[in-house]
Amino acid sequence: MLTLRTPGVGGPYCDGIDRRTFLRIGALGMGGLTLPGLLAAEAASPAPGGPRTRGGRHKSVIMVYLSGGLSHHDTFDMKLKAPKEIRGEFEPIATRIPGISVSEHLPKIAAILDKVAVLRAVTGLRDEHSSFQNLTGYPMALAQRDGKPNFGSVIARAQGPVDPRVPPFVDLFPIMQHKPYNSSGAGLLGQAYNPVKVNSEDLAIMRHEVVPPDRSRSRHDLLAQFDQIRRSLDSAPLESMDASYRNAFSVLSTSRVAQAMDLTREDPRLRDRYGHGSARHLGDGAPMWNDQLLIARRLVEAGVRCVTVAYGFWDTHGNNFGHLRKHLPLFDTGISALIEDLHARGLEQDVTVVVWGEFGRTPKINKDAGRDHWAPVSSALLAGGGMKVGQVLGATDAQGAYAVSGQTHYLDVLATIYHNLGLDPHSFIPDKSGRPMPLLPGSARPIDRLV
Length: 451
Prior knowledge:
Elements: E1 3-5, E2 22-24, E3 29-30, E4 33-34, H1 36-39, H2 41-44, E5 60-66, H3 84-87, E6 92-94, E7 101-103, H4 107-111, E8 116-123, H5 132-136, H6 140-146, H7 151-159, E9 169-171, E10 196-197, H8 200-206, H9 213-232, H10 236-254, H11 256-260, H12 268-274, E11 277-281, E12 287-289, H13 291-302, E13 306-310, H14 320-344, E14 351-357, E15 360-361, E16 373-374, E17 378-384, E18 391-393, E19 395-396, E20 403-405, E21 408-409, H15 410-420, E22 428-430, E23 436-438
Parallel strand pairs: 5-13, 5-14, 8-18, 8-21, 9-10, 9-13
Antiparallel strand pairs: 1-2, 3-4, 6-7, 8-17, 11-12, 14-17, 15-16, 19-20, 22-23
């Protein structure tokens, strides 16, 4: 594989990979922007199509992954009659669903809970600090061993792009210090179905922000290297590759994706409604950067079928209540704004929103005023997608430790996403070798009370 070095560009990410000092032919990267999913999918994907809605709109999904595992006790499944060492420090507030309360630090979500389905008894997850179960439906070790694909890659393979200028799958996950939090790829489906990945530096490039002269020279030098290689090697494969990479560079300034990511095109009042946050990472997890939630809405409106966002850091082994007091208000602002915005734009039938993490937190508060990992049960939010929202599904026991009714296996959440996009979760798609690969295990079922 040919490697091109870019002079004057450096600085390793927190995972130790120096991703700004090289571009590899076959997987163009620009600060985390990779384009196999955009360039190769046009040739490899099925013809544009898939389910359309009224007015010709497509079905899509936005998944918000809460790295670290959010406490269900202190948000959506409060245990008001439990002892204080379980109940915690927060008070409940009423919501738009009669008889249902949530944490006092979630007033904006409480006000739109009639547009949300709350799953209070999500089960089946392992005590595993990774995004793999949420993104693939399988534990990390099994997913890596068997090449299980990210659900967004499955959507890209099964349905292809809505528009040849728009990739079907865009991943907004940053590179997080705890590596298992990071987004998985297409696995055995092949690189053509990897997501287009975009991070904060790419957004600055796409918005045409001022580029320091040394960085500008580096880009010109890089393009010159491409030209030199093209002139020096006369072969049909290289000519084809050359065309792809010229297309890749043009994407940065001309594609609908770049326009969708340019928030200067939005009404500043709407951007303020989403809240802003910061691109700075929290702990070893994700940032709370609410711009990404607005970008996700703009991307699905532009034709992207699947957008994944990693949001916040919720691994509160210590100072659980101080951390949540500080960060839940921004979460409340951003998630409620996304759901309201989809309704305001008439997209609530078309766009499925899923907000969840890898597990819940322990009922009992530990000696450090924190809650530890708790895999037996957790909560999730679902909205849009034409689902029957405005309801709470499932219940846990008096301590919030185990499901006692209406439990939802986490695979059923993924099955519901596929169902909403018009895909049979029990169907098969061919992997890169042409062998049939099931979308999900046979036990997965769409959630009846939602669909």
